[in-house]
Every structure is written in structure tokens, then in C-alpha cells.
Amino acid sequence: MKIVGVEEKYFPAWKQMRQTLYSGLESDFHEQEMEWIFKSDDKACFIFLSDSDEVMGFLEVSLRNLVDGCLGNPVGYIEGIYLKSQYRGLGYGRQIINYAAQWFLSRDCRDMATDAEIDNLNAQKFYQSVGFQETYRIVEFKKSLG
Q1: Based on the structure, what is the number of domains in the chain?
Q2: Does residue 24 carry a pLDDT above 90?
Q3: What is the DSSP string of 3-19?
């Protein structure tokens, strides 16, 4: 598996995988967020490629100032991981987490964190299997100001 920084040529595949991972979001939202990640200094997306350059999945990361259960900042945050089903269970997930950890260490992070939907038991099991510890269970709220 090769891991490369996202380029515009990968946007169609990235968007399709995002729509699977983050279901319920509008197409325009994906496009706007992808552009935001692509142009950001504290966010990044990496694409996983097979030996034949087939897109296997993606990793979205960010640097956050504050994360529950973590001290100091920045905190490396795995915003999302997606690996196509035919590549799951083959050890790629651990490689992806190690890649994220190295990216975060190169940006002076002391901790890395992530989250999983409360009913996504497969994701929770995966994160625990690669060394993450559960810190909290919450329900998040939002109120638009404009």
C-alpha cells in the first residue's frame, strides 16, 4: 500500500468514499469541506493506493487545540478513515494508524485522538485493537448563529 497526499485528481474517488462514510451529508457540503481540507495548513487528507494505483481508501486528519481526555496542544485528530471493504481485515488499518501517528509527531503532537459513532461497534473495536482508549461518551449539539 502506498499513502500519498490528496491531489485534485483523487477528488472524485475521495468524494465517493466520503459519501459512504459520512452518509446524510449533502453533496455540496462534501465538496466545500474537501476544498477546505485541501487548502488547510492544519488539516490533511491522504489517499491509500494499491500496488496497481487503485484507490483503496483515505485518511483525514487535523490538528485540534482541545480534545476531551488529552492534555496539551496541538492534539492530532483522526477525523475519518475509510478503507474499501475488500481491503479490510488485512492489516492495512494498523499501517494507516502508524502513518497518522508519524504525521502527528512531526507536528509536535503529544496525543492523538479520534471518535466513532455510538452504534458503530466495528469502528470502536478497531480503534481499541490499535491502542486507543475510550475516554467519554457524549451527545453533541449545535446551534447556528446566522
Answers
A1: 1
A2: no
A3: EEE--GGGHHHHHHHHH
Query: HSE on the CB side for 54, CA within 13 Å?
Result: 8
The full DSSP string for 28-62 is: HHHHHHHHHHHH-SSEEEEEEE-TT--EEEEEEEE
DSSP one-letter code for 96 = H
Quote the Cα angle for 62-68-73, to 5°: 50
Each residue's pLDDT tens digit, 102-121: 999 999 999 999 999 899 99
86, part of any domain: yes
77 within domain boundaries? yes
Enter the DSSP assignment of 108: T
Q: Does the pLDDT value for residue 138 go beyond 90?
A: no
Domain assignment present for 82? yes
Give me the chain's average pLDDT, please: 95
97/94 Cα distance (integer angstroms) = 5
Domain with residue 50: its CATH number is 3.40.630.30
Cβ proximity of 17 and 58 under 8 Å:
yes
Give residue 92's domain range. Answer: 2-129
Residue 87 lies in a domain: yes
